[in-house]
Amino acid sequence: MARDEPSAAAVDVADGDSPSSSPTLTRLREALAVLSEAFESGDTASSDAAAAAVAEILSPSDADASAALSEQMLREVHAFLSRPSSNQMAIDALSLELPKPVAKLGARMGNCRDIARAIIEFFASNCSPRDMLCILCEALDTPVAFNGSAYLVILLDGLASTLTLIQRRHIEQVKVVLPAILRVMHANLSEYDGEHRMSTVDLFSAALRIGNAIQEMCKTMVNHRKEELCSILGLYALQNIALVSSESKHQNILSTCGSVVLQYSKFLMFCGFTYLGLLTGNDVTSATTKLSKEEDDNFLDCFSSAMDGASLVVVWTSMHDDMSKYAGAEFESALKEVQDNCIRKWEAINMFRYVLSSVNYSWAIKSHSLDLLLTLVDDKCSEETNDHVDFPYSTQIFATLKAIERVMIAAPDTLMRKKAFSALKRVISAVPSTQRFDILQALIENSMFPSLTAILLDLVKNEVSRESRRADQVNGSDRSQDAGGSPPWASQVLELVELILRPPEGGPPCLRDHSEEVLSALNLLRLILIIDSRGSRSAKMLRDEKIRAVYSEWLIPLRLIITGIQSELEKGGGEDENQMLCLLNPVQFVLHRCIELVEEKMKGL
């Protein structure tokens, strides 16, 4: 392959070299001379060893190589490569060996980085692009202890330059490169501490240049091949947006992260992604479908956070001024279109689970996610949803609600926890009435926190009250409705009460740790007993056998436990004991009321 003429910068680099008596430089010059002679004489047997010797000299230990020496060695190599008389076979041999040591030296201080880039660029321009892609990808996987981000940036810049030189089989080459890039970025970002976060910005900027190279490829392609490559570029952008957003937990680079996200979002618009498609996740699904051939399964794994990225683009647009200006009216238009369409609204609601459930993103991002969620879910949503008999979102809704629960539990401030609770209530109230109790039951059965269980039981109580009022209204207008059996939700609600008052593991509940959920369960039971006392005989929720079981198996054992605990606590008389007594008092009050109601019902048996 014919070599390009060296650039002006490269000439300056070579001209800036000064003679040195360093033994290391002397060895390097001798090794380069041996390599050149081996190829000129046709001694291919010793050429590989000569190239390896050059690489070894360029790989000194950190203690042996100062920044000044590193710069001198890199200048020497660049001068050798740039000579018009350099043998192409020698250059090809060095391209196999030098990217790793050159990038490591380039990660040092001084002018090392620029010279290392010039060397890698030279290899990219003068050697086989396909070979260079493999060589540079292999170099990416090499762990570097010192200034690893600078090492990766040099190699990523080399890959970006190489990609622009690919003449055919573009998609196949991109599928080789992107998994390697995303793998090492994810691995290296997880290792950086807060003091080196600005290095991550350089890393994302280098990955952005990879995207620029792929975008240039897209411009040269047509039809389905262009669509496929655009899908890849879009997913690559979303994966990087997710990675960038994971760094926003560090307040010192939050604004910078928003600027980087803006640059990646421009790829999405180029690839045909829309805010409507990002809000609902449909654009991500469409892109992965285009690539979901059997041979691409492993390739798609490198875009595992693409859905996160789609939701994050929307969140960043709402919280970052530059993103909002770039989106213009399209963002507001997409929000309105989602709000006016029930199915799309639920698709958008469920998209927020990716961000809210993850530990990777900042509380600021999660707070803005909740704001958007509350904007989408209004009172009209429940009415619209109930009009749709076929509602296939139960699994996704459960995951979304669990994600909101995580924010309620872990958020660092009270206001955000309240915001999460508001979102939880609104989403639950928007679920079709035929599935609402199923969702609540699943949440309670999977709850690991007594205080959260208590909150959910209170929501069940609110739903029971609402359903009871609705039934009264129906019965008031049509007396014939009262002839039916107990409400369809009755058995589920009683199961939930029993789950708390008579736990599956046996015995009454542990009041010291679970007083909140016990109180909520008793309040729910009291409401059921009151509602049941108003209904007709044929519509009773608690039949004779159930009433006796509630009395003898739920309430009386609990009363005995409370009496025993109170007796113990009163003997102690300390501050902790008094606090526990205060917690038990409302439980005892509601318990006694439930017992009174049950005993009244039992008189009529």
Structure summarized in a few sentences:
This is Aberrant root formation protein 4. The chain is mostly helical and 605 residues long. The protein contains 31 helices and no strands.
Mean pLDDT across residues: 87
Helix content: over 70%
Class from secondary-structure proportions: mainly alpha
Categorize the overall geometry.
elongated
* Main beta sheet strand tally, sense and closure: none
How many beta strands in the DSSP annotation? Answer: 0
Rg, Å, rounded:
34 Å
**Terminal-residue CA separation:** 99 Å
Describe the structure.
By secondary structure, this protein is mainly α. The chain contains 31 helices and no strands. The longest helix is centred in the last third of the chain and has 29 residues, at 544-572. It is elongated.
Question: What are its keywords?
Answer:
YAP-bd/ALF4/Glomulin, 31 helices, Glomulin/ALF4, mainly alpha, single chain, ubiquitin-protein transferase inhibitor activity, elongated, 605 residues, ARM-type_fold
Write the layout of secondary structure elements.
Blueprint lengths: L7 H8 L7 H18 L3 H14 L9 H16 L5 H10 L1 H8 L5 H15 L2 H12 L7 H16 L6 H20 L7 H23 L3 H24 L7 H17 L4 H6 L1 H10 L5 H4 L5 H14 L1 H7 L1 H11 L2 H10 L1 H4 L6 H14 L2 H8 L7 H17 L3 H17 L2 H13 L4 H28 L12 H12 L9 H24 L9 H29 L2 H29 L2
Helix pairs in contact: 1-4, 2-3, 2-4, 3-5, 4-7, 6-7, 6-9, 7-9, 8-9, 8-10, 9-10, 9-11, 10-11, 10-12, 11-12, 11-13, 12-13, 12-15, 12-17, 17-18, 17-22, 20-24, 22-25, 24-25, 24-26, 26-27, 26-28, 27-29, 28-29, 29-31, 30-31
